[in-house]
Amino acid sequence: MKFVTKSKEEKTPEIIIPDDIVINMVATGDIMCHTTNFNAAYNRETKTYDFTPVFVNVAKHITKADIAIGNLETTFAGEDRGYTGYPTFNSPEALGYALKDIGIDVLSTANNHSLDKRYTGVVSTLDTLDEIGISHVGTARSQEEQDTILVKDVNGIKIAFLAFTYGTNGIPVEAGKEYCVNLIEEEAFMLKQLELAKVQKPDIICASMHWGVEYSQKPSEDQQQLANYLFNHGVDIIIGNHAHVVEPMEKRNITLEDGTQKEVFVVYALGNFVSGQTIEHTKSTAILDMQIRKSGETGKITIDSVDYIPVYCYDRGGNSQNRYELLDIREEITAYESGSTEKINKALYNTLKSELKNIESVLGKPIKKEEKVEG
């Protein structure tokens, strides 16, 4: 805390300038649950599901965050509906509890699988997340809920969360329940959501965007244009997903119509955080780690740094115990090269090296505070 003192002649009181507030925001990619994922989590003796072993190696990167967000690309429609994988997902609620245990605070539920179990699946999913204690954004049980913007006060920095999806895999939105999923194609609706967010006077507006082309590691022209549109209308941070592979990230300074400048950030896609997919690069992902600062003197928000932790979804195959396990790629490579682990063999080591190279090539270098941003 800083003190500014006037001279005795001026006889004015001391002005107290608050300290800067600095927080860490973490984000993950698509959280999926294919049939192989929930079958691997099933315990035949207890007849229960346990997903916690999947996340044990990377949990520390999420639990340390002041706020952690992800994209839930499945539904929690209930066991009575039958647990199913692709193409219409319905997952055991135990997955949600595992996400809560590793520190996930907010989940985007707006994606192309939002309506996999129709409107009742939307309701059940949100009811389940409420019971677990994870906030959600992007789908709604009522018009009032859709119009209520999720705002989190994170150690003194107010963040408004929005989420939109390009579509719902052709599954029609039920007549009279258009509020149940936030769609990108409705421009007037997106602007309304942004205005509702601004009314809350947040320090940051963070938008989760389900967009782009699956398996493409480059953002489409539409993604880039939409990112610019969102930035110009008040969004500060965009966390993109849907591609199931990583896509680039960038931070830049923009000048708004009123002449003011601000820092903005977008990552177009973070890949699959967890899934059963096997297509090239769909097993590799990144946990985004952002350091955000609010000036005590001016209240201005700046993005000090953006780092990421490369992660690989290791599949041991078949009926292996703890079949799926997220690996911190750099940690595993270092351990193998030092001879301090027997967890991975030469073939997996080579795979991790290859996936690391791809992740770093696509996402680029971590963004440091001292680096000059693009104009």
Topology at a glance:
Elements: E1 2-4, E2 15-17, E3 21-31, H1 35-40, E4 42-43, E5 48-49, H2 52-55, H3 59-63, E6 67-72, H4 94-101, E7 106-108, H5 118-132, E8 135-137, H6 143-146, E9 150-154, E10 157-165, H7 187-199, E11 204-210, H8 221-232, E12 237-241, E13 246-255, E14 261-270, E15 272-274, E16 284-294, E17 301-315, E18 324-328, H9 329-338, H10 346-363
Parallel strand pairs: 3-6, 3-15, 6-7, 7-8, 10-11, 11-12, 12-14
Antiparallel strand pairs: 1-2, 3-16, 4-5, 9-10, 13-14, 16-17, 17-18
Helix content: 25-40%
CATH superfamily: Metallo-dependent phosphatases
Shape: globular
* CATH architectural group: 4-Layer Sandwich
Termini separation (Å)? 32 Å
Number of helical elements: 10
Say what the CATH topology is.
Purple Acid Phosphatase, chain A, domain 2
Oligomer: single chain
Rg, Å, rounded: 22 Å
Q: What proportion of the residues form beta strands (DSSP E)?
A: 25-35%
Order of helices and strands: EEEHEEHHEHEHEHEEHEHEEEEEEEHH
User: Using DSSP, what is the number of strands?
Assistant: 18
Give a structural overview.
The chain is α/β, with parallel strands linked by helices and 375 residues long. The protein contains ten helices and 18 strands. Strands 3, 6, 7, 8, 15, 16, 17 and 18 form an eight-stranded mixed beta sheet that branches. A six-stranded mixed beta sheet has the order 9-10-11-12-14-13. A two-stranded antiparallel sheet has the order 1-2. A hairpin with an 8-residue loop joins strand 17 (301-315) and strand 18 (324-328). Helix 9 crosses helix 10. The model is unreliable at 371-375 (pLDDT under 50).
